[in-house]
Amino acid sequence: MHIHILGICGTFMGSMAVLAKELGHHVTGSDANVYPPMSTQLEAQGIELTQGYDPAQLEPAPDLVVIGNAMSRGNPAVEYVLNKGLPYVSGPQWLADHVLQGRWVLAVAGTHGKTTTSSMLAWVLEHAGMSPGFLIGGVPQNFSVSARLGGTPFFVIEADEYDSAFFDKRSKFVHYRPRTAILNNLEFDHADIFPDLPAIERQFHHLVRTIPSEGLVIHPTTEPALQRVIEMGCWTPVQTTGAGGQWQVKLLKEDGSEFEVMFEGQSQGVVEWDMTGQHNVANALATLAAARHVGVVPSMGIAALSAFKSVKRRMEKVAEVRGITIYDDFAHHPTAIATTLDGLRKRIGDAPLIAIIEPRSNSMKLGAHRDGLPESVVDADQVIWYAPANLGWDLGATAALCTVPSIVSDSLEGIIERVKSQAQPGTHVVIMSNGGFGGLHGKLAEALK
């Protein structure tokens, strides 16, 4: 059948498109902003992309329209679908009906680390010869594609708490019905759809309600919000990670690049890998617990993690010019910014570190996280904040509260000039945004030459 996807360049919708193509459907799609890495992946898969939402793209009518959660009433293509009575569905619903039905779903939920942990888990199962299917909101470098059907019943999915569509305000993950669920962490986010943290906790509890009594829930001991979720009712065995949990670590290197894994007090082996940061150590523990649930012994999981390559846009080194290293990172929440910078600082020691941050997520634009931003950048030597034209709050006032030198720039050219004047050989520059940032990474690398 011909499936047309509105909002196809979102990480979830783009991955879903890959699965639909693999199932043999003719897949087309459109988006307001077509940009890499998703656009290049889709084009490589032979999926035809249209820029914008002109209703003409829906003539002749496709057999089914899948509507992304970024689409709202008033969008010309959405209005055309409704007026013409074309069949439509949300992405998560389509996935549940056509891909996940009858499979052993391993879901990774949480405010931070979903993409990285899903990638780790898919790789650990792959390394163990289990050929899992997966859908990940990024491109894991061990696979070079963000989704595939796989050759066995096992399917790893990044389980997002964001809403499903304008006509289905439940969290996406309620559709997935996992047997194995990792709940990584839980903080307030998505201020555009959730009024407060308890509202998100309720959605997480809806997820917990769908997990069978023969399944497994994995969560860290250090997250009060997740403890409250479990206390609302849980009918499934639980394993915990971190201090006081069944799964613990002994750090052998402060930056998290080497650690010993303990399960119920017994050593399972040592992970040595290219990743840094306490957050990634925590992600690894949850991964090993989930993999063990489907039969991968921890020693085999540890061997896989030692060969794990990160995800594109997760502290991805994108250039090294005249001794200056440039990284691309997706962090868009104060906690993620802080843990990422902490991990890099522990790796590079006293080397100069410049952070460039675009407050681009909906929560950032609404100012929901602004109070946490000054504290989040303490590991940088200096910070350049990018103020887009549509930001609804005073970024300059926030920058003034930073304890490290901070400036605000309203242009990419201004950012590039600042970095050129400050960066010396040995400097590390981290660009943090959940969007394309106007191609800043390439422009900066070019300018530094």
TrEMBL record:
Domain Mur ligase N-terminal catalytic: 2-99
Pathway as given in its UniProt record: Cell wall biogenesis; peptidoglycan recycling
Keyword Isomerase: no
Record GO terms (molecular function): ATP binding; UDP-N-acetylmuramate-L-alanyl-gamma-D-glutamyl-meso-2,6-diaminoheptanedioate ligase activity
EC number: 6.3.2.45
Alphabetical GO biological process terms: cell division; cell wall organization; peptidoglycan biosynthetic process; peptidoglycan turnover; regulation of cell shape
Residue span, Mur ligase C-terminal domain: 313-435
Cofactor(s) required for function per UniProt: Mg(2+)
The reaction(s) this protein catalyses: UDP-N-acetyl-alpha-D-muramate + L-alanyl-gamma-D-glutamyl-meso-2,6-diaminopimelate + ATP = UDP-N-acetyl-alpha-D-muramoyl-L-alanyl-gamma-D-glutamyl-meso-2,6-diaminopimelate + ADP + phosphate + H(+)
Presence of the UniProt keyword Magnesium in the record: yes
Stored InterPro entries: Mpl, Mur-like_cat_sf, Mur_ligase_C, Mur_ligase_C_dom_sf, Mur_ligase_cen, Mur_ligase_N, MurCDEF_pg_biosynth
Record-annotated Mur ligase central domain positions: 108-291
Keyword entries, A-Z: ATP-binding, Cell cycle, Cell division, Cell shape, Cell wall biogenesis/degradation, Ligase, Magnesium, Nucleotide-binding, Peptidoglycan synthesis
Entry binding sites for ATP: 110-116
Function: Reutilizes the intact tripeptide L-alanyl-gamma-D-glutamyl-meso-diaminopimelate by linking it to UDP-N-acetylmuramate.
Similarity remark: Belongs to the MurCDEF family. Mpl subfamily.
Matching NCBIfam families: mpl
Name used for this protein in its record: UDP-N-acetylmuramate--L-alanyl-gamma-D-glutamyl-meso-2,6-diaminoheptandioate ligase
Organism: Pseudomonas frederiksbergensis
Gene name linked to the record: mpl
